[in-house]
Amino acid sequence: MLHVARKKEFCKVLGPGTRSVIWFHGCLRQCPGCIAGTMNELAEYETFIPQQLADWVKNNIGIEGITLSGGEPFQQPRDELAAFLMLVKQNVTDLSVLCYTGYRYEELNKQESAIPVLQHIDVLIDGEYRENEDFGQRWRGSDNQQFHFLTKRYKNQENEWNHTLERQIEIELDMNGKLLISGVPSKDFINKLTMELQRRDVNVDFS
Ligand code: SF4
Predict the structure, then answer these.
(1) What is residue 46's predicted lDDT score, i.e. its pLDDT?
(2) Which residues does 108 contact at the CB level (< 8 Å), separation at least 6?
(3) Candidate of 103, 108, 129 to mutate for ligand 1, largest count of ligand atoms within 8 Å of Cβ
(4) Where are the domains of the chain?
(5) pLDDT at 29
(6) Pocket of ligand 1 (CB under 6 A)
């Protein structure tokens, strides 16, 4: 089963165009300053078989692609992750796939179990978050994280992607009064907002 902490049908701040985003649950790495800290081992999650998750994507009409985040996508059962991505691309052939991971591409590329997953990814954004290298890069948390263009899909935009400094976030309030934040907010923004909201008794979920 795939463990999902959160999913969002339409998001414009985690990759090109409008994308469906899946935040997988859990990451064992515990990098200092990680903004996905709320998706740790204790957080709530839903479970899906690959077909269910692929059906959810299929219903999100008009998206350019999907973005996988977390938590750590590659700490999910990799055979199921690969099956999910295969179904997504079978259902709608021109959807693109972006994937965040704390692993390095070179590391994953040597692991047999990761290859069937990598084969379905257009752009891998690799490396753990490092607070001291957070300079406001678009779609990246810190400068050590690199875009790996594994297919031709966005290859011609490589220069632009590597040099754009622009952080955008989306903020929503769910039915339970919980504030959901999507994107890659700056650390300073997170600290100020968290302090202010906690003072007012509002729960925040940064993804
Ligand atoms: S930065 Fe990435 S690899 Fe590190 S704890 Fe957070 S989700 Fe895991």
Answers:
(1) 96
(2) 74, 101, 114, 118, 124, 126
(3) 129
(4) 2-166
(5) 81
(6) 27, 29-31, 34, 36, 70-72, 102, 128-129
Residues of the chain under the 50 pLDDT cut: none
Residue nearest to atom 3 of ligand 1 (CA): 102
Nearest atom in ligand 1 to the alpha carbon of residue 71 is 7
CA-nearest residue for atom 6, ligand 1, is 34
List all residues 6 or more positions away from 119 whose beta carbon is below 8 Å from its beta carbon: 82
Protein residue closest via CA to atom 7 of ligand 1: 71
Q: What tokens appear for 152 in the block?
A: 């031709």
83 burial (CB, 10 Å; 0-12 / 13-18 / 19+) is buried
Give the Å distance between the CA of 103 and the centre of ligand 1.
Answer: 9
The residues near 102 (Cβ < 8 Å, ≥ 6 apart) are 27, 29, 31, 72, 126, 127, 128, 129
Instruction: Give ∠ CA 36-78-75 in degrees, rounded to 5.
Output: 30
What would the pLDDT profile of 35-74 be if each residue is shown by its tens digit? 665 556 667 899 999 999 999 999 999 999 999 998 899 9
Stated pTM of the model? 0.93
Residues 71, 72, 77, 83: is their CA dihedral positive or negative?
positive
Assigned CATH for 2-166: 3.20.20.70
Per-residue pLDDT at 84: 98
